[in-house]
Design a protein that fits this description.
- By secondary structure, this protein is an all-alpha fold.
- Helices cover 75% and strands 0% of the residues.
- It has two domains: 175 residues, no CATH class; 47 residues, no CATH class.
- Helix 3 packs across helix 5 and helix 5 packs antiparallel against helix 6.
- The protein is globular.
Amino acid sequence: MDWLLAVLLGGAVGLDATSFPQAMYSRPFVAGAIGGLIVGRPGEGIVIGILLELFSLPVLPFGAAGYPEGGTAAVASVIAYDWAAPTFDAGLLFLTITVGLLISHASGYSVRLLRIRNGRAVGVPADGRPIDPDAVERAHVRSMVLDFLRGVAVTAAGSAVLALALAVAIGVGWTPLVPAWPVLTIAAVMMVGGSLSIFGSVRERILSFVIGAAVTAAVVAIL
């Protein structure tokens, strides 16, 4: 039942990203935290959500731009990780984030396919007559339903693929070639640094970079 609720959450997360209500619970951090609560692993859900959120920071999801969808990927990652790792496992977390990023790109591609479908579904009357507002409303509702189902499908398929990858890793006794936490920390700080050009002045960017570098150095030294 928890798995089913989490998959339905993926549908709601996919819907929130663009269609409705755009309440920001589709952000990876929020989606991962809610998914973690549903499956009974709030701590791991928050960690997965934060890491995927940091990789999503440089993405500006507006207009017709194509971009990864991190929210559904976060929910799928939490589901698979909960199934594969009864207790916290940094190595499996590393693999979860890696495959989760691939899932986010696949989910983003599904958004583009749905947009193409929606554009064709609305269309323009060939004889130049005005478009019926009721027909537009019905097409809008259908598109929202399809967006929810898309989120459900992406979450279910993504969690299944990731669970399979984690099961194979466990079966062969896989461990990262390098310590997981330092690599994840450095990668996350690099993504934050890459997003600095979007926010603030040069002075604020330099300050953020210095703080990030100091935090990274401290975390790597501790780990």
